[in-house]
Design a protein that fits this description.
Organism: Tahibacter amnicola
Number of helices: 9
Strand content: 25-35%
Largest sheet: 5 strands, antiparallel
Protein name: MvdD-like pre-ATP grasp domain-containing protein
Order of helices and strands: EHEEEEEHEHHEHEEHEEEEHEEHH
Length: 335
């Protein structure tokens, strides 16, 4: 019997929509667990006996039932807040319900023996950008000199030592918490990677509230987005220097800069794949700089990074197919 693929995400996830369609087109039936419908739209019947969990998860609207014994692969695509039958839960009631639901779900998931893209424990261990720099350097990547500080003096000293050319970037998220609050509570939508010019130095006292991350500015010839799926790496060349608005941060998606399919040097490609695998991950999205001298500089790896925008801009990189095929293969062989 063909094992099923469990996709854990939310309703508004185009990545999951497209991958699920490809999995269906290849003759397999995914089961989608939208966390923003869970547990309100699902029925659980899970039992522990004789040293094992058995049972099922029923999606009430569709009637689709997923038996634990049928799960061959899990794609942990996107988190979301849980949904409950009652919409008027008090603050403490909702806190208890959320904690208990998370405990049940993670207990279930962590008990599975199957293929993961990627396991929650591995993905969480891989997300810390400060540790990534240490690991990348140990694996032979060139890594920018960096500083973490919450006082002006070390930042000014670092800027002077780097010839006055440093950048600020966020570590957890560029959204500045905007995605964690309601629209009426939002005061800023985010911040891009920013060069610390004299204008910003005049405001440097503002870093006292939160530890801030700075790096030496690395001149760019172009940038590369490397998407590792299983044992393969798919690379896109990003000509970010072609427009002044994307010179420092290519993630200004309102600007139409060129993207091209790109072939990494073999040693760099092997290192990217090895870096992702070193965490026990089967997926990762790495950002690299290529300097005017042709050196490759590691910036970061996102263990759950978006891939659809890359495929839309470089259609020959069949990333959606690659994800679907890796999940199908993982479900078939269990690893």
């Amino acid at each position: 019997m063909t094992k099923r693929i469990l996709i854990i995400t939310e309703r508004a996830d185009v990545h999951a929509d497209l991958v699920a369609d490809r999995i269906l087109a290849k003759g397999h039936r995914p089961f989608r667990l939208n966390l923003d419908e869970f547990p309100a739209r699902f029925s659980l019947d899970l039992r522990f006996a004789d040293g094992a969990w058995t049972g099922s998860l029923l999606h009430q609207p569709s009637g689709d039932t997923l038996w634990l014994s049928d799960i061959g692969a899990v794609w942990t695509r996107k988190p979301a807040e849980f949904a409950f039958d009652s919409e008027d839960l008090g603050a403490q009631e909702k806190a208890y319900a959320s904690e208990e639901t998370e405990h049940v779900l993670l207990s279930l998931l962590h008990s599975l023996s199957c293929f993961w893209m990627s396991h929650p424990i591995a993905a969480r261990a891989a997300q810390w950008k400060g540790e990534q720099l240490l690991r990348a350097a140990a694996m032979g990547f060139e890594v920018p000199r960096s500083l973490i500080a919450n006082r002006p003096e070390p930042v000014l000293q670092f800027r002077h030592a780097e010839g006055g050319d440093i950048i600020f970037k966020t570590l957890a998220s560029p959204y500045l918490g905007a995605d964690k609050v309601s629209p009426d509570e939002c005061v800023a939508v985010g911040i891009a990677t920013t060069r610390i010019t004299d204008e910003y130095v005049a405001m440097i006292d503002g870093i006292g509230e939160v530890p801030c991350f700075f790096q030496t500015h690395i001149p760019k010839q172009f940038e590369v987005r490397v998407t590792v799926i299983g044992d393969r790496a798919y690379s896109a060349k990003i000509l970010s220097q072609s427009d002044p608005r994307t010179v420092t941060d290519f993630r200004e998606f309102s600007v139409a800069i060129p993207y091209e399919a790109f072939t990494l040097p073999e040693d760099v490609e092997r290192r990217c794949i090895a870096f992702v695998h070193s965490y026990g991950l089967s997926y990762g999205a790495l950002d690299l700089i290529v300097t005017p001298q042709g050196d490759y500089v590691f910036l970061e790896n996102n263990p759950g990074g978006q891939f659809l925008f890359v495929e839309q801009l470089v259609p020959e990189l069949k990333l959606t197919d690659a994800v679907a095929e890796r999940l199908i293969q993982g479900a078939a062989d269990g690893r």
